[in-house]
Amino acid sequence: MGAWSRPPEGWVKLNVDGAWTGEDCRGGTGMILRDDQGCTIFAACNHLQSCGSPLEAELLACTEGLTLAFQHTDKPVIVESDCSEAVKMIKDSDVNRSPVAATVNEAKRLCPVNESICMSVKEHIDPN
User: Fold this and answer.
1) Cβ-count burial of 96 within 10 angstroms (0-12 exposed, 13-18 middle, 19+ buried)?
2) Helix or strand or coil: residue 30?
3) Helix axes 101-110, 84-91, angle to 10 degrees
4) What is this structure's pTM?
Protein backbone atom coordinates (compact mmCIF):
# COMPACT_ATOMS: atom_id res chain seq x y z
CA MET A 1 0.00 0.00 0.00
CA GLY A 2 1.26 3.51 -0.76
CA ALA A 3 2.27 5.92 1.97
CA TRP A 4 -0.28 8.27 3.47
CA SER A 5 -0.11 11.78 2.04
CA ARG A 6 -1.10 14.93 3.91
CA PRO A 7 -4.09 16.96 2.81
CA PRO A 8 -3.53 20.52 1.61
CA GLU A 9 -3.13 23.21 4.27
CA GLY A 10 -6.45 24.02 5.92
CA TRP A 11 -8.01 20.66 5.00
CA VAL A 12 -8.35 17.35 6.87
CA LYS A 13 -8.20 13.84 5.43
CA LEU A 14 -10.57 11.02 6.34
CA ASN A 15 -9.29 7.55 5.43
CA VAL A 16 -11.99 4.88 5.53
CA ASP A 17 -12.09 1.15 4.98
CA GLY A 18 -14.67 -1.59 5.21
CA ALA A 19 -14.23 -5.32 5.75
CA TRP A 20 -16.65 -8.17 5.11
CA THR A 21 -16.80 -11.89 5.62
CA GLY A 22 -19.19 -13.86 3.45
CA GLU A 23 -19.28 -16.83 5.82
CA ASP A 24 -21.54 -15.12 8.34
CA CYS A 25 -22.39 -11.84 6.55
CA ARG A 26 -20.63 -9.71 9.13
CA GLY A 27 -18.18 -6.95 8.67
CA GLY A 28 -16.47 -3.95 10.11
CA THR A 29 -15.60 -0.36 9.40
CA GLY A 30 -12.54 1.67 10.22
CA MET A 31 -11.77 5.34 9.85
CA ILE A 32 -9.15 7.90 10.83
CA LEU A 33 -9.24 11.67 10.47
CA ARG A 34 -5.97 13.60 10.36
CA ASP A 35 -5.16 17.27 9.96
CA ASP A 36 -2.76 18.85 7.47
CA GLN A 37 0.16 18.20 9.84
CA GLY A 38 -0.64 14.48 10.06
CA CYS A 39 -1.97 14.68 13.64
CA THR A 40 -4.83 12.31 14.42
CA ILE A 41 -8.12 14.04 15.19
CA PHE A 42 -9.97 10.77 15.74
CA ALA A 43 -9.76 7.08 14.89
CA ALA A 44 -12.67 4.68 15.16
CA CYS A 45 -13.86 1.23 14.19
CA ASN A 46 -17.19 -0.49 14.29
CA HIS A 47 -18.35 -4.10 14.13
CA LEU A 48 -21.16 -4.74 11.63
CA GLN A 49 -23.40 -7.47 13.00
CA SER A 50 -25.12 -7.78 9.62
CA CYS A 51 -23.56 -6.73 6.34
CA GLY A 52 -24.56 -7.85 2.87
CA SER A 53 -21.40 -7.22 0.87
CA PRO A 54 -17.92 -5.68 0.80
CA LEU A 55 -19.43 -2.68 -1.01
CA GLU A 56 -21.95 -2.16 1.78
CA ALA A 57 -19.14 -2.24 4.35
CA GLU A 58 -17.16 0.38 2.38
CA LEU A 59 -20.21 2.64 2.03
CA LEU A 60 -20.98 2.33 5.74
CA ALA A 61 -17.37 3.25 6.52
CA CYS A 62 -17.82 6.40 4.41
CA THR A 63 -21.08 7.43 6.09
CA GLU A 64 -19.85 6.68 9.62
CA GLY A 65 -16.56 8.44 8.96
CA LEU A 66 -18.21 11.54 7.53
CA THR A 67 -20.68 11.73 10.40
CA LEU A 68 -17.83 11.63 12.91
CA ALA A 69 -15.66 14.01 10.88
CA PHE A 70 -18.38 16.68 10.91
CA GLN A 71 -18.62 16.31 14.69
CA HIS A 72 -14.87 16.88 15.08
CA THR A 73 -14.00 19.60 12.55
CA ASP A 74 -15.41 22.41 10.49
CA LYS A 75 -12.55 22.23 7.97
CA PRO A 76 -13.06 20.89 4.45
CA VAL A 77 -12.67 17.10 4.25
CA ILE A 78 -10.90 14.85 1.77
CA VAL A 79 -12.34 11.33 1.98
CA GLU A 80 -10.02 8.56 0.81
CA SER A 81 -11.30 5.02 0.21
CA ASP A 82 -9.80 2.02 -1.56
CA CYS A 83 -13.17 1.16 -3.13
CA SER A 84 -13.61 2.90 -6.48
CA GLU A 85 -17.16 1.55 -6.82
CA ALA A 86 -18.26 3.16 -3.53
CA VAL A 87 -16.67 6.50 -4.44
CA LYS A 88 -18.27 6.41 -7.90
CA MET A 89 -21.71 5.67 -6.42
CA ILE A 90 -21.46 8.53 -3.94
CA LYS A 91 -20.25 11.00 -6.58
CA ASP A 92 -22.84 9.91 -9.17
CA SER A 93 -25.71 12.39 -9.52
CA ASP A 94 -28.09 9.74 -10.89
CA VAL A 95 -30.62 8.01 -8.66
CA ASN A 96 -29.15 4.85 -7.18
CA ARG A 97 -31.43 1.81 -7.39
CA SER A 98 -28.97 -0.81 -6.18
CA PRO A 99 -29.38 -2.99 -3.07
CA VAL A 100 -27.19 -0.46 -1.20
CA ALA A 101 -29.19 2.59 -2.33
CA ALA A 102 -30.17 3.67 1.20
CA THR A 103 -26.54 3.77 2.31
CA VAL A 104 -25.48 5.55 -0.90
CA ASN A 105 -28.22 8.14 -0.38
CA GLU A 106 -27.11 8.72 3.21
CA ALA A 107 -23.52 9.27 2.05
CA LYS A 108 -24.76 11.67 -0.64
CA ARG A 109 -26.78 13.55 1.96
CA LEU A 110 -23.60 13.96 4.02
CA CYS A 111 -21.62 15.03 0.92
CA PRO A 112 -23.49 17.88 -0.70
CA VAL A 113 -21.88 18.94 -3.95
CA ASN A 114 -19.69 21.80 -2.76
CA GLU A 115 -16.08 22.68 -2.16
CA SER A 116 -15.89 21.29 1.39
CA ILE A 117 -15.88 17.58 0.44
CA CYS A 118 -13.50 15.83 -1.93
CA MET A 119 -13.65 12.05 -2.46
CA SER A 120 -10.80 10.02 -3.92
CA VAL A 121 -9.68 6.43 -4.34
CA LYS A 122 -6.41 5.20 -2.82
CA GLU A 123 -5.18 2.21 -4.78
CA HIS A 124 -3.57 -0.69 -2.94
CA ILE A 125 -0.14 -1.54 -4.32
CA ASP A 126 0.76 -5.22 -4.39
CA PRO A 127 4.32 -5.59 -3.04
CA ASN A 128 4.92 -8.74 -5.16
Assistant:
1) middle
2) strand
3) 70
4) 0.86
